UniProtKB/TrEMBL annotation:
Pfam families: Peptidase_M23 (PF01551)
Transmembrane segments: none
Species per Swiss-Prot/TrEMBL record: Streptomyces lomondensis
Record's signal peptide: 1-39
PANTHER family: MUREIN HYDROLASE ACTIVATOR ENVC, PEPTIDASE-RELATED
UniProt entry tagged with the keyword Transferase: no
The protein's name in its UniProt record: M23ase beta-sheet core domain-containing protein
Keywords for this protein: Signal
Domain of life: Bacteria
SUPFAM superfamilies: Duplicated hybrid motif
Domain M23ase beta-sheet core: 129-231
Length: 242
């Protein structure tokens, strides 16, 4: 009887031991499983954070590249604009320089003068009214063609317009415009000669009906006396500062 009790007690103890071991093993398994799950969650979270950071870095890099590209394009546009402005300024300066170098279309017939008797002025020196503009200058002053053209009259007796003019020259300029130079001391051109603007054609004097050395200058619509217009007004309309 005693032996049976002992045997039963031994078996019960073994069962309890096994149960304890199993329980312990189960606890360890549960704990390990929880640890593994926690580690997996941590890894996933870390990976997601890294991905977000990488995406943000990529976006920042792309934005920086776009900003640099835009800045470069803006600089290029400014440079092109500055170059265009510089080119335009250089072209304008070249045109102005060329205009300065270009010979004027019309010029004064003499230099360093004083205006004396004017167009349409009354006086005893003329048959009616004065037909031109007088430029008071010393005898021998260079007289030039006020505009290029062809000499149609040259010589004494007013070149055919009468002795009152003394030695004279008439130049045809085209478009019904002629210029006349009178009271000359010396004539340096001949009929048919082509002259340029500013070219010397004579020397001033005191020949003909003259009260003192000067150049009598006319602008005419024909080569002959009686077709004169106001020469000062004409020259000023051509840009000459008479």
């Amino acid at each position: 009887m005693s032996q049976r009790v002992t045997s039963r007690s031994s078996r019960t103890s073994q069962f309890r031991t096994r149960a304890t071991v199993l329980a312990a093993g189960l606890g360890v398994s549960v704990a390990l499983g929880a640890g593994v799950a926690s580690a997996a969650d941590t890894t996933a979270a870390s990976g997601a954070a890294t991905a977000v950071q990488a995406q943000a870095a990529a976006q920042a890099k792309a934005a920086k590249a776009e900003a640099a590209k835009a800045a470069k394009a803006e600089m290029a546009a400014k440079a092109a604009k500055a170059a265009a402005a510089k080119k335009a300024a250089a072209k304008k300066a070249a045109v102005q320089k060329a205009a300065k170098k270009a010979k004027p279309s019309w010029v004064d017939p003499v230099k360093k003068y004083r205006l004396s008797a004017s167009f349409a002025q009354n006086g005893g020196m003329w048959q009616s009214t004065h037909s031109g503009q007088d430029f008071a200058v010393p005898s021998g002053t260079q007289v030039v063609a006020a505009h290029g053209g062809t000499v149609v009259k040259a010589g004494g007796n007013g070149a055919g317009d009468g002795p009152a003019y003394g030695n004279a020259v008439v130049i045809k300029h085209g478009n019904g415009t002629y210029s006349q130079y009178a009271h000359l001391s010396k004539v340096k051109v001949k009929v048919g000669q082509i002259v340029k603007t500013g070219q010397e054609i004579a020397r001033s004097g005191n020949t003909g009906n003259s009260s003192g050395p000067h150049l009598h200058f006319e602008i005419r619509t024909t080569p002959n006396y009686g077709s004169a217009v106001d020469p000062v007004k004409f020259l000023r309309a051509k840009g000459v500062k008479v």
